# Entry
Amino acid sequence: MDYLPLHLRQPYRFHEGGRFISDEDWSHMDRIIEDHELMIGVSGVVFLEVDGRLLELRESDILILFPGQRHRGYKLSAPGVSFYWFHFDPAEPPSGEPQSLIPRHARCSFPSRVHILARQLLHAASGGYAIAAAGDYFLTSLLIELGEQLHDSAGLQETDPRLAELLAWIRLHAHERPISLESAASRIGYNKDYLARMFKRKFGVSLLAYVHALKLDASKNLLAGSRLGVKEVAEKVGAGDDKQFSKWFKKKTGLTPTAYRLSFSGTTLNNR
# Structure
């Protein structure tokens, strides 16, 4: 199966999860699981053989393993490899047409959004919410986000491979340099007006809005997952000085950077 059909009559059932981090060479164990597993690449490369198919999980990638699939590492990952892992199942046998299809192996357009939801899910799993079913709903929100980001991933590669190349370039450089519509169009040899129309049609936002969203997502990711000061975060994402950054961040999120960081104070990292 190349897709996970997303049925939303009831929230998905979250079983367990964590964030794996290795400080030495590492390879995944050889095993077969009885439920679904979602893996989200954070850093490094995980080399997995899944039912005889060789796959790589890199930063910004997701991989869904299905019940009964045998998987194992086929090559050592270097120290520092890290990924989120979540075990789950549908609440009931799927029926009817799915609301979306999530590719079992794909690269996210907005990886920081996915990482933020993953942290919220871990926060819920560690007892951060009084509501017992919070983990189920955060897991379902994470799957919905993946469905939204990845629903046209196959079509994008088939019809316009240069757009995938452009997205990767923007994600790599959005925090290092100003990116304009003109520079992006020149990068892949497109007329800027044609690129503007195509980008908006494919992703539902303008190219510049996409760049700004990457900066905001990176800001959230650093505030929630690091100990960098607000000034350092502003410098990392290319958002001006700390005062400008704080004003911009509050306008976008309704929270100051410090208040946003405190909302994730109960989230812990763990590994299996």
The longest strand covers residues 13-21.
